[in-house]
Structure formats: C-alpha cells, structure tokens
Amino acid sequence: MRPLSRPSEGELRRLGSGPAPPEMNELLAQFINLLGALLLMLAFAMISQRRILSLIALFTMQGATLVLSTIVVGYVTDQPHLYVSAGITFALKVVLIPLLLHRVIARLDIRWDVETLFNIPTTMLIGILVVIIAFNLALPIAKLSTSLTRGTLGIALACVLLSFLMMITRAKAVPQVIGFLSMENGLFFAATSATYGMPMVVELGIALDVLIGVLILGVFIFQIREQFDSLDIRHLEQLKED
Amino acid sequence: MHALLFVLGIPLTGGLVLALVGHRDAARDVNVAFSAGTFLAACVLTAQVVADGPQFVWEREFFIDALNVFLVALTAFVGLTTAIFSRPYMRIERDRGKMTPPRLRLYHSMYQLFSFTMLLALMTNNLGILWVAMEAATLTTVLLVSVYRTAASLEAAWKYFILCGVGIAQALFGTVLIYMAAEKVLGAEGGALLWTNLNAVKAQLDPDIVTLAFAFLFIGYGTKVGLVPLHNWLPDAHAEGPTPVSAVLSGLLLNVALYAVLRCKVLADGALHGNLPGRLMMGFGIVSVVAAVFFLIRQKDAKRMFAYSSIEHMGLMTFAFGVGGPIATYAGLLHMTVHSLVKSAIFFAVGHATQKAGTQIMDEIRGLIRVSPTVGWGLMLATLAILGSPPFGVFASEFLIITTAMREQPWATPLLLISLGVAFAAVFARVQPMVFGDTSVRPLPHPPALIPVFVHLGLGLMLGIYIPPYLDAWYRQAAQMLGG
Fold it and tell me: How many angstroms separate the CA atoms of B168 and B175, rounded?
C-alpha cells in the first residue's frame, strides 16, 4: 500500500496537472456535463418510445454518447486505460449488442412492432420525480467529488433509476432487455465519471458478463416465444402464491 | 503452484471439458470427478491455512482468511455431494425424457462453472471481481433453472434473471461508490478495490459516500440473499429447476451472497460512526423471518416450501450479523454452515421423494417410509434438524441467536420465537404424512444416492455436539473481524 502522505490522483487532478491547460479542462468538463445531459434525455426518450426499432436506435445513441464521454474523461485526466475501455464499449454497445438485437427482432419478425404504452405522461412525471430523488441522493457526494465530475454522478444515478422504471412499465420481453442494458449504461457512466473508470480487470469482467447476459437473454426470448407464442411478459405470471 | 489456483482451475477446466463431453453417459461420473478434485484442492488449501495462517495469492488479488476459508471448504464439499446426488437423479430424469443429451451437456457444464464462480467470489480480494463473480453465478444458475424448458421453468428463470440482474446492478453502483471513496485515500493505482487495502484504511473513508454505497450494496447483494421484499425470484427458481440446482442454490449461492454483504459490512462499520449497517440488517432480517414463515404455511409444493424455509434462515442469519457482537456473529457463522449442510440434505431427500412420487405436491406424496425407509428417515431427520430440534447444529446456533437477542434486542425475541414455532408446526405437519402412513409412491429404476444425505446430517449433528477446535478458532477470528 502506498504511503498516505503522498497526494492521491484525485488531488493531483484538482491541482490542474492534467495534460491540457486548466481552462481547456474547464471546457471539456462542460462538455462532459453536456454529454451527461444528453444521456439523461435519451433515457427519457426510451421511456416514451413505443417502436422497438427506434428503441434500439436510442440505445445505440446512448452507447455512442458513453464512448465519447469516456474518451473525453480519458483525455482530460490522462488515463490511457480509459481509451481501451471506450474501445470495449464501442465494440460492445454500439456495434455488437445493437447488431444482435436487430437480428433477434428480424428473426422474430417484430421489427415494426408498436407497443401500446399506457399513461406516458404519468410515467414521464414519475421519471422527473425519480431524477429529483437521484440528484438529491447524489448531492452530498457530488460536493466531495473532483470538479470535473460534479453533477454527473446524479445524472448517472438518474439514468439507472429511469431504466429501472422502463423495465417496470414494459410488458414485452425485448424492451425489457433494452431497459436492462440501458441500466448497465448508466452504471458505466457512473464508473467513468465518478472514479475515472474501474480497474481494467474489473471492466473486462463486467463487459464479459454483459455480453454473456445478452446472449442468454436472446436465447431466452426465442424459448419464450416458442413456449407461449408471444413475447408478452404477462404470460410469465403463472407462478403465483396461492 | 498454490493450492488456491487448483481450487479455481479444476472447476473451470471441468466446465470447459463438460461443455464438450457433457452429453455422454460418463459425464455424470466426470462431473463427480471434477467436483472431487475441487474438494481435494480445497482440503489442501484448508490444511495450508491451518498450518500457516491467512495468506495472499497472486499479487494480493486472492486471499484466504478466517472468514472465507471455512466457506470455501463448505462450498467445495457441498459441490461434491450434490454432484454425487445428481448422478442417479439425472439418470432418472434422462430415462423419463425430461433431460435430453444437449440439456445434460448444458447442465453439467454450467454446474462446474457455477462452482467456479462461487469459489471465485469467495476467494477474490477485489470487490469488483466479487461483483463480476456474483453476476456470473446468476448467469450460470439462470441456465440451470431453465434447463427443463417448461413454461414454468422459463418463467422462473426470466424472473430470476431480471430481478437479480436489477438487484446486482445496484451492487455495482455501490461498488463504484466504494471505489470513489477509496480512491481519495489510496489513489487510483494503489489497489483501491482490494478488500484488504480498504480494510486497512476504512476509518478514513468518507462516511457520506460509504453510507450510500452500503445501502446500494446491501440492496444489491441482499436480493441474492433472498431477503424480503426482494425475495420473489427465490421460491420460483428453487421449485422449477432440477433438484440438485435447488440444493446448491440454497446451500451455496445464498451463503456466498451473504458473505458479500458481510465483507461490505466490515468496511461500512469501520467508516461510519452510527450503527446503520447493523440496523439495516436487523430490520431486513427480522422482516424476512416473519414474512417467510407466513408464506411457508400456505405452500403446497415441497420444494417451494423449503425455499421459503431458506428465506427464513437467511433472514435469521442476517439478523444475527446485524445484532453484532462476538456471540451473535459466531452463531450467525455456525448457522451459515449447518443451514447449508442440512438444507442441501433436505433437497437431496425431497429430490428422491419427488422422483418416486412423480410430483412435487406434498399432498400427493404419501408413506415414503414403506417404499424406501432410508429416503423417508432421511427426510424426517433432515426436517427435524432444519426446524431446530436438538441435538442438531441448527438448534445450537438458533439457541445462541435467540439468547443474544433476548439480551441485546429484546423486542425481536417474541417475533423470532413465534416465527420459529409456527415454522415448526407448519413444516412438521406437512412432512409427517409424506413420510408415514399408506404409500402412494413407487420404487425407482436406479438406486438413489443416499450417502450425501446422511453425511450432511452426520456433520450437522456433529456441529450441534462438538465443534472442532480449528473451526471454533476460525469462527472466533471471523467474528472478531466482523466487529465482535
């Protein structure tokens, strides 16, 4: 363990010892906040989106935003391992998973499905409430954080909770899976912006888990369809307590 | 090479080998062989720890101390006995057409990989890897639960995946927050996610961050422990999957999830001034005990009933760790051990019984003892043991938990006593006619593996009467570390 008297990475960063001059950092920090806001907007868009195809497009955009913010954080803080992690995210969340999802919906012939969602305005209002709660929870911690990431932790938590809300309100299997994946996006954003990324080995492990999870869910969706002739999760409510 | 690498390497290799040959007839024996190898390596590792004390392996990424050494041995042991039990069980399932060769291959491969993820979660020193291993354990068990591909098992597996996936996502957020708090103290490259490093500086971690982090970690891993109200996945997953899977879910997975909570609790206790972790654990624990008992009364399915019994016992352990102090924590650790042994024994016996009767509905299983006295007695004794009758180990640990509760948290005592009493009456009344009376079951084509049942019961009995000195020393050390 390193001696405690040495200033930590975080403190060094606060002193402005990144590769770029401080005013440049300030600009990039603003840019990260902008990307965070974009992420939050995409999360809201996903809650109200009824077309599966558009939902996948939104998910891909969320992934792309994430890649961009990871690269910027990596540049500002001079942490090369964040570039690797941005690369993994790009491969996984912008290319591979959307591709898999497209293939799944093509094979299931649900490309043009439109889900009937009840009470979109109410869901949006609950969503706003969720965001307020998330910001309040993150506030005491955001104050302790380094200047670069202040505020983004609240956004990340809000994204996680909004995806959670999306999973609750959806009755179809594929949108539920997308909600699950978008929750993982929010967590990833939390990890990159609040702590400058998890250690590499952990990040690789998480990426592997997500990939395997998507593959298993994909197989499951086919099995559910075969078994119930539908992808409506409401069929999956037979196991009830008497 | 260190024994620890074998403990992890053997099940991993087993998973890969069985992915290739798991559909053959010999795969059942290969599965047992790999589990036996893992158990042997775990024994060697345990002997090393007994001789040399706690140790680090591979750049401090893995470590073995008093808290995880007995859980590693227990996990490898139950993994082996369940593999032995699953030999005749899966043979019968195959003969009845419920398991096809591809499903058997999936089952055997995932069984080994599941053991691997459990052991990885127990021995890693890195909180991030702990999370990865817990998530991987969810993925492997989801495939195990859905292996029959029936409507009910698909539903159970989907529910399990979504609920635990969401739950464990909360734990990842908690881990990120812990890392954030630690980075301020340890720096980014100082192994800020290594538990031992965190433990050394826990008093300097920021209390605000750690409070929020513990809340998320507790909810996340608590979902996997099956604490009420996050328990919905547990009874379905236990009831709809194959019985060997129910045995390892109850006997191992829940323990490992609780272990993760305990590791986080140690850090939170050190960083916070109040007793927030203890209160949270006591609250969720007692709610789980009471709620599980009232669900348990109404069950008709044998495996579902014992799944609720698992929720009850996990709640009891969580409560004991929440109370804290050397005696309650000691009792909690003892309860973890005996519950895991006895509950898997019950699932072995129930597995044979349900195969004989061709149903899991308790009202339709009658007079086991006429057809097969050993299964009948095994089920009866295991039920008595889990309900806390002396002289079994469960009695000893429950007695310790309740007497400590009387002294330190008197409000909880009546709730606990009533719950345990109701559970006794309900479960005993259900199991008694299953075992005695006129018979409705038929003999099986292949003799069941009953050695695991009685070995587990024997160990459970032994721990009620006599605890070996090294085990006692580990419990004491671990209890001290957990804030005794």
Answer: 10
